[in-house]
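Our consortium's second objective concerns turning raw sequence data into structural hypotheses that experimental partners can test. To show how far this objective has progressed, the report includes one record in full. It was chosen at random from the queue rather than selected for favorable results. The single chain below, 283 residues long, was entered without modification.
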Amino acid sequence: MSESNTWRRYLTDYNEGLGLVYERFVLNDFLEGLRRRYAIRSVLEAPLYGMAGVSGINDVMLARNGVDVTLVDDNAERIEGVQRIWEEDLGLSPNLILIRPDRWGDLPFADDSFDLTWEWAGLWYIHNPAGLLRELVRTSRDLVFVAMPNNIQVGYWMRKLVIDREFFATHDESWTNIGRIRRILEGAGVEIIDQGVLDVPPWPDTVMPANEVLHRLGIRSQKLEAQFTGDDWQWSTMAYYMGQEPDLRDRVMKYAWLDHAPLPWQIKTVWAHHRYLLGRVKR
């Protein structure tokens, strides 16, 4: 297994692209819904690296609503960068825990330590994903939330077969199998109380900025390139968090009509970028 180093750029360059900003806002809404519904006061996100773009900022809105946030990573450079982002740019202080890459099956927390434990699209980046899933169960006193890329949607296959074949040669895509994840969670003592899809915008999921997709497809067009670059094509969740673009969420979430459509989630699966499971620990 190898790890992309693109995260380094985003520790200082917060321009993530429209797709990632949209994904972040949809996830924010989902987590905020859990916080209100289940009175969540403490969360563990492990690993903090799964979503592309700026690492470690998926729990910012939870922290701003009074939740005690703990984040785990196995990369010292990245965790130092995430700490700087939270403390210097956001004025927040999460609990940042560094572990060895071989310790995902043995997290340094007591049983029943958190109201919610969760991960987003990170299982295929770490050693011992099954061990981590069991640890998410062990350390939760209530909820476990797990999401991974949806392996049947069009962007996934475009990425796999055309634009990012190296990634799939070095990562175990069997961890996108939601049935496999469910069996591990249930075997560890979780009752699944909800499942579905999240992140269903009107564009495919390629996990990279549009301009880079064009380059990888061999498309050279000044007109298209101009459309997806420059000052008019700056998309940054951090700009919203830092108060620089207070209208950003409204501008981005106008694309959420499919996410919000009252359709069965099974129908949305054809286009959704992520599938998820939500479970309750049986104690």
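The partners drew two points from this record. The CA atoms of residues 73 and 248 lie 29 Å apart. The chain has a mean pLDDT of 90. Both points have been shared with the crystallography group to help prioritize constructs.
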